[in-house]
Amino acid sequence: HSERSLRILKQSSGTKAKLRNVYVVEQVLGLPRSKVLGLSGKNQLVAVTDTGIDYSHCFFYDPNNNVNVCYETGLANCTFPNSANRKISSYTVMPRSSLGDVVGGHGTHVCGTVAGNADGQENSEFVTTDNGVAPDARIVFQDAGDSSASEYLNVPSDLKVDVYSAAYKEGAKVHSNSWGGASNSYSIDTNQTDEFAYLHPDYLVVFAAGNDGPFYASVSEPAVAKNIISVGASGGVPENGWTSSRVGEIWYLVQGVRSIITMIPAVFSPPIYRMERQRGEVVLAEPVLACQTLDNAAIAAGKFVLVSRGSCSFSEKSFFVQSSGALGMVVYNNEAEYPDDIIIMSPANTFRPTIPCLAISLNDGNYFKRILQSQPGNLAIELPAITDLYVDVASFSSRGPTYDGRFKPDLLAPGDRVVSAHSGGNLSNYHCGARSLFDMSGTSMAAPAVAGAALLVREYFTAGLSAGNGLSPPANGSRAFAPSAALLRAMLLHSARQIGTQTGFLAPSTRQGYGLVNLSTVLPSPESSSFILRVEDNMSVSHGQLVARCLLARAGAELRVTVAWTDPPAHFASSRALINDLDLTVVGPDGETKFGNGMLFLDLEQGVYKARDRRNNNEQVVWQNVNAGTYVVYVFGWDVPVDPQTFSIVVTGDFEIKSTCPPPSCPHGCNGAGLCEGSLYCRCDLFHVGEACELRTKYLDQNVLVEVELAATQVTFFYWNVSSANETWRLFFSPQLPTNISVLLAFNRTPSLTDHDLLLRSVANVTDVNSSNLPVQGRGVWVLAVQAPDLYGSITDLYLASGASNSSGSWFPFFPSPSPSLSPSPSPSP
Fold first, then answer.
1. Strand, coil or helix: what is 291?
2. Taking 60 as the threshold, does the pLDDT of residue 13 lie above it?
3. In this structure, which of 160, 354, 564, 718 has its CB flanked by the most CB atoms within 10 Å?
4. Cα–Cα distance between 732 and 503 in angstroms, integer?
């Protein structure tokens, strides 16, 4: 065994408001925990490789059963007897590592988010609300940290044997990793990760994407692997409290007119921002100090009660206010010397109110009292829902694409100032209470939230809750089964929605993948019964084979289809990771066709090009406001050299399953400008592009300067003729903006990422292509594709010069002298 140091992916938190673990859970679930089918990670095991766990923390402590610890010697992997410990199934200390976690340790915090559970533990009254996403799951832990509080882990070089296989042997089926390297390449670690996943198709690996945002293509390996879930971080939900002196915001209403007021929640308060808004009238406590049973308890019931600071503890006040049946407690400061200050309410005893408790300033309290005196019954408070608060990709979260253009990260989860378990650094000292929690930031914090979500989805299937969920009739009966990792991945991607500046986007992006995970959009429950879920796992398709499923949809709902497959591993340092390429297509009742991942490219002169995704092993179609009728879901084995390929499919919407499908056909007969292949595809001639060969490519005149304006992701095509075998030419590119373009060139065919004679990525300066240096020559037609990057547009000047002279000055005065002519290879390079 050999080890090397890999960085943990935490980020400096700064001074922003903190995000309590309960918000992480509720954002991931999309509903309060109690309303999501009772899922909690029961009978699930999650592997975590990190700095250590302080298992004396009440999230992990078991007073009745010791933790089984094994020190990895390098001679053989650890083995464990059946462990009865309630939280930690096994604990392996890897070579060059030490048992336990340092004070404020990374591993303890991560494990708290994925599976922390303080229920029933001593002094846990102020902690249980912030249990992890899958609190009943148990942890297979691999300790790769040391006692020096280093920012690096001692991770074994052989991930397949010493990390993944060791955890798999202990029964884990989900593996959370909040560490990584610094490269965007298909590294040895990336190859090993994809290979293990391919050989163990029921094992889902989750990796943090990295903290090198907002820079383009900054996702780090192994998070660039294709068979995993790569997780970026979202930021937002600015509730404050704990040890923060910053303030949050709520609404107050006078005669229905809404305004904003600042506040600080009590340390002992349940969360202020929940999944639904809370609104209620405000009344003044009698007596105003609320240190005894309220005289106006009958009036206070169902309302927010305004209380003065002083005479007794805040927790005592909350007891009497809650006893009146109040909706919440609002405490105003009583220090005239500091009329604008807001106090932080800390607990004085073990009473834990179940109503929201918040503090405001003396000035605001006096203002509220004046309204109550002059306009009784006309003052109300409204606590915003989480969905009211702005959430976007965290600035530090690494962006895609990968080195070969794939979408990464796959998903987002909360990762900015997340409050979770705080390590005390001493395994012999039990600790709990409000001070046993603290905040960290980074994609390190987001990855375990997604791993926890994967455990809940897995429990959904293994517990048999997915009754009648097949895509092939009959669709009835209970189906308890162990899902593949591809199905778990498809379910999580299916659940996600774009947020922030990309809210409403239907296609994955290089900033946030498919978006913020939200299980309520994919797991039907009494609280989210507006859609039907159907899945099929371990389906199979061969090269050139077409698999079809038919749905009879009712009008008005959204139809969403997601396909994922575990692809064979690519070779180390491969320029293209995808091996087996499947295509998802959905055809509507009127013949309209949508391709997986919504690859739409705009040409400003000719319109929209629909394109197939040739890079990713996840594809999704979202069809909003469907018309009533038959929708056919096709999965086609476009290029399957490792035959056959299994895949998983997830469908939600309002539909019934049909047993027969109409025959497939190419759209509009390819408009007479192409051949129909595979009963579904138009192979266009050299002068047309588009789904149905409906758009013409543009002729590029020689010795004429052409300006090409491209929007983000936009692609445009040109062609020119070479009439003589001896004819030479030289093509110049000059981006006017400091952005990178991609150039694809092919002879006698339309170029694509998988079929080209030249691929140039990141052309940011004056660049030229000399035909004499290309691998093909002769008479024929050259076709050029120019594409802008995913995040920015570009304006590029093109100039096609006749002749291949090495001196450009005499016939090309527009640009500065170009770089030496390129000698590109026919295969792409990262």
1. coil
2. no
3. 564
4. 38
Run of H or E residues at 487: helix 485-495
d(CA 156, CA 152): 13
Which residues on adjacent β-strands are paired with residue 608?
602
- Which of 334-343, 494-503, 606-615, 717-726 is the least confident region? 606-615
Distance, in Å, from the CA atom of 378 to the CA atom of 255, rounded to the nearest integer, reads 5
According to DSSP, residue 574 is labeled -
Cis geometry, peptide bond prior to residue 474 (ω within 30 degrees of 0): yes
Which residues, other chains included, contact 529 with Cβ-Cβ below 8 Å and sequence gap of 6+? none
d(CA 332, CA 288): 10
Mean pLDDT confidence for 643-648:
96
How far apart are the C-alpha atoms of 236 and 275, rounded to whole Å?
14
What pLDDT, in 10s, does the model give residues 536-570? 999 999 999 999 999 999 999 999 999 999 999 99
DSSP symbol at 486: H
In whole angstroms, how far apart are CA 289 and each of 293, 295, 354? 11, 12, 20
Q: Is 649 in a helix, a strand, or coil?
A: strand
Q: Provide the residue type at 311 as one letter.
A: S
SS3 per residue for 717-767: EEEEEECCCCCCEEEEEEECCCCCEEEEEEECCCCECCECCEEEEEECCCE
Q: Which helix (H) or strand (E) holds 644?
A: none
Rounded CA-CA distance 315/507 in Å is 48
Beta strands at 715-722 and 780-787: parallel, antiparallel or unpaired? antiparallel
State the angle between helix axes of 443-462 and 21-29 in degrees (0 to 180), rounded to the nearest 10: 50
- As a whole number of angstroms, the distance between CA 283 and CA 293 comes to 15
Rounded CA gap, 278 and 228, in Å? Answer: 39
What count of Cα atoms within 13 Å lies in the side-chain half-sphere of residue 633?
A: 30
CA–CA distance, 780 with 764 (Å, rounded to integer): 29
On whether the pTM is more than 0.90, the answer is: no
- Closest C-alpha to 57, from 36, 88, 31, 81: 88
The yes-or-no verdict on residue 12 having pLDDT over 70 is no
The pLDDT assigned to 825 comes to: 32
How many angstroms separate the CA atoms of 703 and 580, rounded? 42
Amino acid (1-letter code) at residue 113: T
Pairing of strands 729-735, 767-770: antiparallel
DSSP code string of 336-404: TTSTT-------SSS---SS-EEEE-HHHHHHHHHHHHHSTT-EEEEEPBGGGS-EEE-TTS-----TT
| Nearby residues of 309 by Cβ (< 8 Å), 6 or more positions away | 331, 332, 333, 334, 335, 343, 359
Query: Tens of pLDDT along 785-816?
Result: 888 765 566 788 888 887 644 433 333 334 33
Decide: 258 and 282 in contact? Cβ < 8 Å.
no
Q: Are 525 and 644 in contact (CB under 8 A)?
A: no
| 64, pLDDT greater than 90 | yes
First to last CA, the chain: 31
**What are the b/e assignments for 770-790, b being 16+ CB within 10 Å?**
bbeebeeeeeebbbbbbbbbb
Name the pairing type of β-strands 546-553 and 629-639: antiparallel
**How far, CA to CA in Å, does 750 sit from each of 378, 588, 776?**
69, 28, 15
Pairing mode, strands 152-156 and 174-177: unpaired
**DSSP one-letter code for 447:** H
Whether residue 319 has pLDDT greater than 90: yes
What are the structure tokens assigned to 48, written together? 């975590």
pLDDT digits 0-9 by tens, 677-688: 878 888 888 888
- Joined together, the tokens standing for residue 221 give 């390996």
